[in-house]
TrEMBL record:
Residues 499-536, 893-931 form the EGF-like domain. SMART domains: EGF, LamG. This is Contactin associated protein-like 5a. It comes from the Eukaryota. The gene is LOC127365473. It comes from Dicentrarchus labrax. It is found in: Membrane. Keywords: Disulfide bond, EGF-like domain, Membrane, Repeat, Signal, Transmembrane, Transmembrane helix.
Length: 1220
């Protein structure tokens, strides 16, 4: 059934309607029986009828039944359906049906969507909308005028301001409002590059004399000639700036709380005092409506010519814009062909304006005489290039402009005169091509694209808007082109610039930077600590416990306790020397503090600032099993409690700022010290040792362990002002252990058993991860429903997991099938993610499967019911459920279901009938529980080469990928490298990873012993070189290196020091990089390597356990060593007063020097062997390529799903080699 959609637009910008009625055009006999009314305030929407292609033959008849304001359009995304009410329509061709709205609606557009039609007859619909009163006070500014509102007194000082207006602008620049005072206060509201900037200063002398005034910016593309509403609210220093539906809240600079403006406020410009008609900034050109300043109707005062208003060249009506624009929709087939007009002076000239987001596109193509010359104007890499093609391959080229794809209007002027072709962009200095002879245009001028064979290779075509086209100084009427009276066109929209800012609002999470093209946007996650299409996924583990499970040792780490949530990563110290893994957060006062002369009236106050925000601290504490903080109080005649009434003389504040007076234990209601709880106080008449008030030193030391009060945020000491009184206190770091989310399991024994959780908050992005084991052939893991939307993860068959959802674009199903059964009563991992860019699904270590979201689809997932979890034994990170049905129990049966890890260092626990075994195949460690390190030493003649090939699915994806996918693929590429080494040699090669297309990663020690990491990912550019550790690592001590790359972000951790983050920049100034890497390799490596891991590959372990494998090539003898056992010697012991930020203690360094001196090993990288092995493997690769062509053809049906490797799989090439 064809769909007819009608939108009515109010001429004043808003439509307030009370009722509407339906009737039918008498010429037609096909009427709607039920109609749905939608409304929209989208500033990009236009008045239009939507009609399907199947009814285009009746188009002319339908136009006669609608007002002339309506036009035709095929892009339904401009009118998002917001259902207001459903109505009953006509039952015949004569009756009139009236419907009354339950309440008035204030909107800009109304759309009527017929739901059912009479089974016989033709289509026809007429709607009359009856509105309510709406007062409009309008003013038109011509770019040279302004309104001045003069105060009754010399200055106006306000603590609260409310300013509101609506505007429609013809230009991207212009001042809407300005006022300033002699004290230095000022307020300026200004359009700048299509955005609205608010400058506001309250008595800040620094800003008064500074040229770097900072603006708060809201909105985008506000020069689109549509109406936009502005609302400014200020109370003291708090300000809300709202443009349309986007609000920015901020606090003003300066010390003042009032805005002091002298003499007057100006609207539409900033007039220069004493010089009428002269303005300091560019004036506003457009219309304003309903301009109110603190309740005063400025435009009404101006219309009534009140004395406090001065209006210059302002008219009180809004003229309709005369600029006619057209939109080029397609990047492959859009074009506009216009004939040339005769030039009186010879040659030709072209002028036009354009706006776009695309960095590439064809703007103009024209054939020249004499033949076969042609002229091409195109955007390339965000610059304009003018190219003159002569005979053969000869061409001349000039460039102009910068960032012309910023979405703003840019003017282009092209002129041929004086044997030159000049190109001028935005009035900047011209660029010229010298000619040997005068050129004339031949044939039509092609704008935005070209249908002829001469220019089809000049793709992509232009996607964007054009207006004000002049050829030989003659304007071209685009209305005539639309009517078929002038030139020709394809895939164009007329009388509109359908540009859209896809970065407003910014859908990139966690501070990711948004960039866009005409049809999509992308996120740059560099430096954020997050990855993914929308910077949703944290690259850090959630806790120190999680780092321990992947084989990390003690050191400083970044943890992200809420994962993809709003909280950012936090730097902590992970102490893994004990059975429990301790998370340690230090504060700003780690040394003991001596206090004298304090009293209750003038107490000593110390505030503690931690390395995390209050929200991050709360997340860490609440997610831990137990937390504690030591308090040490040494006293001499300094009491903690008053001996008379027991009121505290000293106390501390918890994380919420609440006053606490207990000094040990976990009982917050007891005002006692630890000695009282343990019944060992020096004087049992008191609850604290210090309350005995002796002249000798006493001590009260306790451990605070009530989690809801930790950490200590402030301490107050109030009894050291008496003679001989003195106190020394020390507050230790916050220490927590356990991660409640590591193993949060539940078992379901009935098909109807579920856990109920609150509604999943997943409008724009969500990720779901869990482990499960079952024997059932199918079952629903998780489901959440809305009115129409839903999200579901289920075991759809014994070997397949399905992730499905609907956000309003129709159901989307993403399924992954395993070659092994998943209902084998073993634990399996599932992770599903959905955001506005894509959806992904991963099962165990199978390659990730991706499905891109439609560019103009509905982005928000609207859920309303509870979240249901159930049917199979499952383990996931969620808060406690609100309710559970019968047949659900906490925990899971089996040996592998405990919270303590039975298998270490990425080992996988596998259930057996009479116990369990550890699968250490993906771990760099060995032994029955994957906790025995694998270390290897070589002599000077030995080397190891490990060759590995990626799964076929990735090869298939690489062979069929489009150019548009390259950016997405690079953002998902990642490596995870970890190893330990001991050496005294420099320079030295530690390891390299290389591919056949000359990409490589090299980790070396430079001549000074510093660590260098070389990344050469783009063969046409120089490599990136990073030096995370500038000190000498060739010191005979053990060092642990971890390298983690996600897209363009590189994260490096050296031993127990803090992580280093680097962006991949591709520095082109580096020289002789091959020589430096080859020099390190030629010197060999005298030392020891252990626990080497690259993604899920352990090369040293493979060399020892699979010596006959074709993937491992060994030169010289291999000797197993024990150098990895030194790792525990580098651990820090952080307890009490000994806590420090220093990553290396002197004692530890001495111990390592003694131990490391005993251990020696040799690893040499044979460069000659590299060439021989590469040649052999290259021949093998060519043979495999030829055999895989048939497989690629057979699997081409799956090209809609783009596969990717997991976090620990690389995605850059089909085959790699690992040299050690």
């Amino acid at each position: 059934m064809p769909l007819l959609c009608t939108i009515l637009r109010a001429s004043a910008g808003h439509l307030c309607c009370r009722s509407l009625c339906f009737c039918c055009c008498r010429k037609l006999r096909y009427w709607p029986c039920r109609t749905e009314l939608n409304y929209s305030q989208n500033p990009g929407a236009l008045s239009m009828i939507y009609i399907s292609e199947s009814v285009m033959k009746r188009l002319v008849i339908m136009v006669t039944c609608f007002a002339s304001v309506l036009c035709f359009h095929h892009n339904r995304s401009l009118c998002p359906p917001v259902v207001l009410q459903r109505f009953v329509g006509n039952v015949n061709s004569e009756a009139v049906v009236q419907n009354k709205l339950s309440h008035p609606v204030r909107t800009r557009f109304l759309r009527f969507v017929p739901r059912d039609w009479n089974p016989s007859g033709w289509m026809g619909l007429r709607v009359e909308v009856y509105g309510c009163s709406y007062k409009s006070y309008m003013a038109d500014f011509d770019g040279r005028s302004s309104l001045l509102y003069r105060f009754n007194q010399k200055s106006m000082s306000t603590v609260k301001d409310v300013i509101s207006l609506r505007f429609r602008s013809h230009q991207a620049e212009g001042v809407l409002l300005h006022g300033e005072g002699q004290r230095g206060d000022y307020i300026t509201l200004e359009l700048h590059q299509g955005r609205l900037d608010l400058y506001l200063n309250l008595d800040d002398s620094r800003l008064r004399f500074s040229s770097g005034r900072v603006a708060v910016s809201v909105g985008s593309l506000l020069d689109d000639q549509h109406w936009h509403s502005v609302h400014i609210e200020r109370f003291n220093k708090q300000v809300n700036l709202t443009v349309d539906s986007h609000t920015q809240h901020f606090q003003t600079k300066g010390e003042g709380h009032s805005l002091e403006v002298d003499y007057e406020l100006s609207f539409g410009g900033i007039p220069l005092p004493g010089k009428p008609g002269t303005f300091l900034r560019k004036n506003f050109h457009g219309c304003m409506e309903n301009l109110y300043y603190n309740g005063i109707n400025i435009i009404d005062l101006a219309k009534r010519r009140k004395p406090q208003i001065h209006s210059g060249n302002v008219t009180f009506s809004c003229s309709q814009p005369q600029l006619v624009a057209c939109t080029f929709l397609s990047s492959s087939s859009s074009f506009l062909s216009l004939p040339s007009a005769a030039s009186a002076t010879g040659g030709f000239s072209v002028r036009f304006q354009f706006r776009t987001w695309n960095p590439d596109g064809l703007l103009l193509f024209v054939q020249l005489s004499p033949e076969p010359q042609r002229l091409v104007l195109q955007i390339s890499n965000s610059r304009l290039y003018l190219t003159l093609h002569s005979s053969g391959r000869q061409k001349s080229e000039v460039s102009a402009g910068h960032r012309v794809n910023n979405g703003l209007w840019h003017s282009v002027s092209l002129d041929t005169k004086n044997l030159q072709i000049t190109l001028t962009v935005d009035g900047e200095p011209s660029s010229a091509i010298e000619l040997w002879e005068q050129l004339e245009s031949r044939g039509n001028f092609y704008f935005g694209g070209c249908p002829t064979t001469d220019c089809q290779h000049l793709t992509p075509a232009f996607q964007g808007c054009m207006r004000l086209i002049f050829i030989n100084r003659q304007p071209k009427d685009l209305n005539q082109a639309q009517q078929g009276l002038l030139g020709n066109y394809n895939e164009l929209q007329f009388d509109t610039c359908n540009i859209r800012d896809r970065c407003l609002p910014n859908l990139c999470e966690h501070g990711g930077r948004c960039s866009q093209t005409w049809s999509s946007f992308s996120c740059d996650c560099s430096g954020t600590g997050y990855s993914g299409a929308t910077c949703h996924n944290s690259i850090y583990e959630s806790s120190c416990e999680a780092y321990k499970l992947i084989g990390s040792s003690s050191g400083f780490y970044s943890i992200d306790p809420d994962g993809s949530g709003p909280l950012g990563p936090t730097q902590v110290y992970c102490n893994m020397t004990e059975e429990k893994v301790w998370t340690v957060l230090a504060h700003n006062s780690t040394a003991p503090v001596t206090v004298q002369g304090s009293s209750l009236l003038k107490p000593h106050i110390m505030k503690f600032n931690y390395s995390a925000s209050a929200e991050e601290l709360q997340a860490i504490v609440s997610g831990s099993e137990q937390c504690q903080q030591e308090v040490v109080y040494d006293c001499k005649r300094s009491r903690l409690f008053n001996t008379k009434d027991g009121s505290p003389l000293s106390w501390w504040l918890d994380r919420e700022g609440e006053r606490r007076s207990y000094w040990g234990g976990f009982l917050p209601g007891v005002q006692q010290c630890s000695c009282s709880l343990e019944e060992n106080c020096m004087d049992m008449n008191y609850f604290c040792n210090c309350d005995a008030d002796t002249d000798t030193w006493a001590n009260d030391t306790g451990v605070l362990s009530y989690k809801d009060h930790l950490p200590v945020s402030q301490i107050v000491i109030g009894d050291t002002n008496r003679t001989g009184s003195q106190a020394v206190y020390h507050i230790g770091p916050l220490r927590c252990y356990g991660d409640k989310s590591i193993w949060n399991a539940a078992s379901f024994y009935q098909e109807s058993s579920y856990l109920y959780f609150p509604t999943l908050q997943a409008e724009l992005a969500s990720d779901i991860s869990f482990y499960f084991k079952t024997s059932a052939p199918s079952g629903v893991f998780l489901e959440n429903l809305g009115l129409k939307d839903f999200i579901r993860v289920e075991l759809s068959s014994p070997s397949a997991v399905t992730f499905s959802f609907d956000v309003g674009n129709g159901p989307v199903v993403l399924s992954m099938k395993s070659h092994l059964p998943l209902n084998d009563r073993q634990w399996h991992y599932v992770r599903a993610e959905r955001n506005v860019k894509e959806a992904s699904l991963q099962v165990d270590q199978l390659p990730l499967r991706f499905l891109e979201a439609p560019a103009d689809g509905h982005p928000r997932l609207r859920l309303s019911s509870q979240l249901f979890v159930g049917r199979v034994t499952i383990r996931l990170n969620t808060p406690p459920p609100e309710r559970m049905t019968p047949g659900v129990s906490s925990g899971c049966p089996g040996y592998c279901s405990g919270s303590s890890s039975l298998c270490h260092n990425r080992g996988r626990c596998i259930e057996k009938s009479n116990g369990y075994v550890c699968d250490c195949s993906q771990s760099a460690y060995g032994g029955t529980t994957c906790d025995q390190e694998v270390s290897v030493s070589f002599d000077m003649e030995s080397s190891v080469t490990y060759t590995f090939q990626e799964p076929f699915s990735v090869m298939q994806n690489r062979s069929s990928q489009a150019s548009s996918v390259s950016t997405e693929s690079s953002s998902r590429a990642r490596e995870d490298v970890a190893f330990s080494f001991v050496t005294s040699q420099k320079p030295a090669m530690l390891l390299t990873v290389s591919t056949f297309n000359q990409q490589y990663i090299a980790v070396i020690l430079a001549k000074n012993g510093s660590l260098q990491i070389w990344y050469h990912l783009q063969t046409d550019r120089s490599p990136d070189v990073f030096s995370p550790a500038l000190n000498n690592l060739a010191d005979g001590r053990l060092h642990r290196i971890r390298i983690h790359r996600v897209g363009k972000n590189l994260y490096v951790q050296v031993s127990s020091t803090l992580s280093f983050a680097f962006p991949l920049i591709h520095n082109s100034n580096l020289e002789n990089f091959n020589e430096k890497v080859m020099e390190a390799a030629s010197k060999g490596f005298s030392g020891c390597l252990s626990s080497v891991q690259f993604n899920h590959v352990a090369p040293l372990k493979a060399a020892l356990t699979n010596r006959g494998s074709s993937l491992v090539t060994i030169r010289g003898p291999l000797v197993q060593s024990n150098c990895g056992a030194l790792a525990e010697s580098t651990s820090h012991t952080l307890q009490g007063k000994t806590f420090t930020h220093s990553p290396h203690g002197n004692g530890t360094q001495k111990d390592l020097a003694v131990i490391a001196g005993v251990v020696t090993a040799v690893v040499f990288i044979a460069v000659c062997a590299l060439a021989v092995i590469s040649r052999l493997l290259y021949q093998q690769r060519r043979a495999q390529r030829s055999s895989s062509i048939k497989e690629e053809t057979r699997h081409s049906v799956y090209t809609d799903y783009r596969t990717e490797l997991h976090l620990h799989n690389s995605v850059r090439d089909n085959m790699k080699e690992y040299y050690i």
